[in-house]
Design goal:
The protein has one domain (2-255): Hypothetical Protein Pfu-838710-001. By secondary structure, it is an alpha+beta fold. It has 7 helices and 12 strands. It has helices at 6-12, 43-50, 78-84, 128-141, 206-213, 223-231, 241-250; strands at 17-18, 30-39, 55-57, 65-74, 90-98, 103-111, 117-124, 149-164, 169-180, 185-188, 191-198, 254-255. Strand 6 (103-111) and strand 7 form a beta hairpin. Strands 2-7-6-5-4-8-9-11 form an 8-stranded antiparallel β-barrel, surrounded by 4 helices.
Length: 264
């Protein structure tokens, strides 16, 4: 997968870099989010239009970083179903590893009734103390307990993070999506997901202008929900079917198993 990004890496070399510490002023842990789904072949066109006004996050000399995320949910899939059923207030619990640095965080994303996204996290150190701290954290910021949650999905991808410091705006571009639940793995190499994170829904977004100029329209998507729906055909997913069909249209879904992916 790394080798297939050669042209993207070449384009990223034309951006000015920003470090993690420099990006602190644009953390946007309370933010408005807007997402787009596009074919990965369009990413180059998007990047070319962003060079003048955006800088790119660079970590350990890398501008295309690998992420690995484990998602957790209750036995009865309360968080997944809350998203599927459109509940205005809902949660996601995940453990995210930044592969290039080895850092791991337990994160909670909460969607509020006014449409904002709140993100909180605690760093994990891999020992028993970290597990205890994680449980305290989960109980403090969600209605759940860590011991009552199960690992439901592993998602890996490569991410570009662009920053417009003037507009307090961050943009992530995720490619090379891969989903696994322990028994089945699905890859979506031709799909890219763009997410614009800004201070508020009313904030001026330079990246929205770029996307509009390329006739790419907003489309809500949850990697967690789509990954589970693709991997678990018996899981309730009727409200995600149009999205799934669009992803399959964009991309010939590749699976490491011989069985076909059901979209029924």
């Amino acid at each position: 997968m790394r080798n297939s990004f050669a042209s993207i890496k070449s384009l990223l070399s034309e951006f000015k870099p920003i470090s993690l510490s420099q990006m602190d002023s644009v953390k946007l842990l309370q933010r408005s989010e807007k997402k787009y789904i596009l074919h990965s072949s369009k990413v180059a066109s998007v990047l070319k239009k962003a060079i003048a006004d955006y800088v790119v996050l660079e970590i350990c000399d890398q501008r295309l970083q690998e992420y690995s995320t484990e998602y957790f949910d209750t036995i009865d899939n309360a968080m997944y179903l809350a998203h599927h059923n459109g509940k205005p207030s809902r949660y996601k619990v995940r453990k995210r590893e930044y592969v290039v640095s080895g850092e791991q965080f337990l994160e909670v994303k909460r969607r509020t009734t006014n449409g904002e996204t709140l993100k909180k996290r605690v760093e994990l150190n891999g020992d028993e103390e970290g597990t205890v701290n994680g449980d305290v954290f989960i109980q403090a910021v969600t209605p759940y307990k860590l011991e009552g949650l199960e690992k439901k999905l592993v998602n890996s991808f490569y991410r570009i993070t662009l920053v417009n410091t003037a507009l307090k705006e961050r943009v992530t571009i995720d490619m090379g999506l891969k989903f696994s639940n322990g028994s089945k793995t699905i890859q979506l190499p031709s799909v890219a997901i763009v997410e614009i994170k800004s201070e508020s829904a009313e904030a001026v977004s330079g990246f929205e202008v770029i996307m509009k100029s390329l006739r790419i329209h907003p489309s809500s998507v949850s990697k967690y929900c789509i990954g589970r729906a693709l991997l678990e055909p018996k899981l309730k997913a009727n409200l995600f079917q149009n999205k799934i069909r669009y992803l399959i249209k964009l991309n010939k879904v590749e699976t490491e198993q011989s069985s076909n992916v059901s979209t029924q």
